[in-house]
Amino acid sequence: MVIKGGWEPCVEHSAPDERCAGVRVRGMDRCLRHLTRAELEGHIEQLSRDGDRASRRRPLAEAYLERVVTNLTATSEGGQAAGTRQEINVSAGTFTGDTHIRWTNANEGDLYCIGTAFAGNTYFDGTSSTRRLYLAGATFLGDVHFFGTDDELAFAREADFTDARFLGNTYFNKIAFTDDVIFNGTAFEGRVYFNNSTFPGFTQFFDVTFKDHTYFDESKIEHGDFTGAVFTRDIHFGDTKFTSATFAEATFVKGAHFGDVEATRLSFDNATFEDLQRLGPLRGDRVSMNRATFKNPVAIEAAPTYLSCVGTRFTGGAELRVRRSRVDLAEAFFGSASSLSTSSTGFSVDDYHPYIDHRPVLMSLRSTDVSELALSDVDLQWCRFAGAHHLDKLRIDGLSPFRKPPAGRWRTSRQVLFEEHLWRAERRPQAGWQNSAPWDGRGFPPDEVSAERLAAVYRSLRKALEDGKNEAGAGDFYYGEQEARRHGSTASRVEKTILWTYWLVSGYGQRASRALAALLLLIAVATALLIGFGLPGPGPAAQSTTTTAPGRTVTTTVDLPAQLPPAGQRWTWSRAGDATRIALGAVVFRDAGQKLTTAGTWVVMVARFFGPVLLALAALAIRARVKR
Q1: Cβ contacts of residue 95 below 8 Å, gap of 6+?
Q2: How far apart are the C-alpha atoms of 151 and 249, rounded to whole Å?
Q3: Which residues contact 481 (CB under 8 A, 6 or more apart)?
Q4: Nearest alpha carbon to residue 561 among 599, 605, 525
Q5: Neighbour order of strands in the sheet with 192-193
Q6: What is the percentage of the chain residues whose pLDDT exceeds 90?
Q7: Backbone φ, ψ for residue 502 (5° rounding)
């Protein structure tokens, strides 16, 4: 290893006639090699205290500092220092000019610059190194460059930049770190470039401050942890590949550019976005934004397998454009007009396949105020609405399907909520209703839904669909509301009887077929009763009596009671035709002018009452299906 630079040399002598060229420890006139044991221990203790300022940062290990190299030769001010032993330690020193550190072969020793100050520009270059690099607590006043002689500089062992300060621009372009990299507590005052770099181990950026633009474009990061990091200016992750990355409690003051990012797991939990306008496109398996805060309007575009926004605060509103993802919006807050819709952007070749359903699957709106939310082209078959606030103001547009009841002889096809599946499955486990979602039991516990709560949810969503001019969907939800009321525990016996009758004859006014079937049944029954008991047999309808008195003749006519024919003569085609005509006329308030028995009169009166009611129910049901 070759180190070129300027520094204040040690006052001791490495030989009788040769002054030591070691770098002075700050505040002392000797290098680490010539410190006494007590001075060295005191210096180590001070560095350890400085390195443990944040609980999540790794303290400076005393073992690193105690291994002081004994074979370091250097010349002062523009000279050259070469080390041939396993370790090179210039910790706590000060380099006054530009500094060049070059690895001349892959097997050179570890480099320790713990607490070292570099006043000028600093250059790290050469061939790949198989040793460790320790720059914890170092300060770089100028620009810092890492680059290799073969267009790439590789570090095969751990690199530690804990609490380092980079006041100028920093360049890590095309750097290959093959082990863990630690930047905990580091401050970057200038621009930072990590473009085309590789981080296959654990990369820690705990509490790091990036005060200027930062670039990780086209880099590969296996496990990146940016917990508590602060990005004062724009951060760029264009085409970056993550296996896992967390930005928990991070603060993004300006833009965060995550264009075409791929990540198996990507977390923004508890992060704060001060002025973000667009996030994504994001791809991968799981993206989490739980309890994150977006203070301004933001457009988020993503296509992960699972997108979690539990407790997320979209203060300025959000456009969530998602493709083929499960989305959880439980406890989310939308401070302004917001939407969840299917992204029109293709993220892969499969996204352009015409037979693949690209709609996002909404999982939950539990405890979410949805008064500012609109859903467009969203799969709602598994969504849990119970517990959401202002459901009557939710806007549902496009192709947003709900679940259907299981196939059955007496079940009608309609849209139902997933909560109804859960509720009915609990009451009748063998009836084919869904008792859980595919992901229940994996962090998504099933909810217990009562009939009364289900009726309230249906009522609110019905109002939302009516406001959206979706009368057919509103009718289905009215049906579900009445079903929940009929089976609930708070309804009285009389109310349940009325609801049961309402369901039987017309499907709560939503099934025209039932009303028409009931009307046909009414006509058939009325016809049968008229044939058997309402139509009189042949014979005089009145009897006349003539009385002759002196000078005048008086004729008196008396109506005779209608007489039924003998039982064997009642069921004839002629009487059936007359009875059918009278029954049909009765249901539309037409008087056939036919003399009837007393029983026949009552039959016609009943038909005149119930016939128009059933016709009206059928008309209303048809109107509910075709009205827009």
Answers
A1: 5, 6, 7, 23, 116, 117, 118, 119, 120, 122
A2: 36
A3: 455, 458, 459, 462
A4: 599
A5: 80-82, 2-4, 99-103, 122-126, 144-146, 170-171, 192-193, 214-215, 235-236, 256-257
A6: 31
A7: -60, -40
- At 111, the amino acid letter reads L
DSSP assignment of 556-602: EEEEPPP-PPPGGGTS-HHHHHHHHHHHHHHHTT--------HHHHH
User: How many Å apart are CA 379 and CA 527, to the nearest integer?
Assistant: 50
CB-facing half-sphere around the CA of 441: CA atoms within 13 A: 4
Q: Strand, coil or helix: what is 605?
A: helix
* DSSP code, position 225: E
Q: Say how far apart CA 192 and CA 65 lie, in whole Å.
A: 28
Largest CA-CA distance found in the chain, in angstroms, rounded: 180
* Residue 285: CB atoms within 10 Å: 14
Contact in structure between 323 and 351 (CB atoms under 8 Å): yes
Give the HSE-up count for residue 78: Cα atoms under 13 Å, Cβ half-sphere: 0
Note the pLDDT tens digit of each residue in 51-70: 444 333 333 333 343 443 33
Predicted confidence at residue 79, as pLDDT, reads 36
| Residue corresponding to tokens 């080390």 | 83
Phi, psi of 573 (to 5 degrees): -65, -35
Neighbours of 469 (CB within 10 A): 10
Q: What mean pLDDT is reported for the chain?
A: 79
521-536 tens-digit pLDDT: 888 888 888 888 877 7
The answer for residues whose C-beta is within 8 angstroms of residue 567's C-beta and 6 or more apart is none
Q: Do 173 and 198 form a contact (C-beta atoms < 8 A)?
A: no
The gap from C-alpha 140 to its chain's centroid, in whole angstroms, comes to: 43
Residue for token digits 């009596």? 545
Q: What b/e string do you get for 87-116 counting C-beta neighbours within 10 Å, with b at 16 or more?
A: bbbbbbbbbeebbbbebeeeebbbbbbbbb
Whether the Cβ atoms of residue 182 and residue 204 lie closer than 8 Å to each other: yes
Beta carbons of 271 and 251 less than 8 angstroms apart: yes
Contact 147, 169 (CB under 8 A): no
Distance CA 361, CA 204 (A): 34
- For residue 210, the surrounding DSSP H or E stretch is strand 209-210
Query: Over the Cα atoms of the chain, what is R_g?
Result: 43
Burial class (CB in 10 A: 0-12, 13-18, 19+), 258: buried
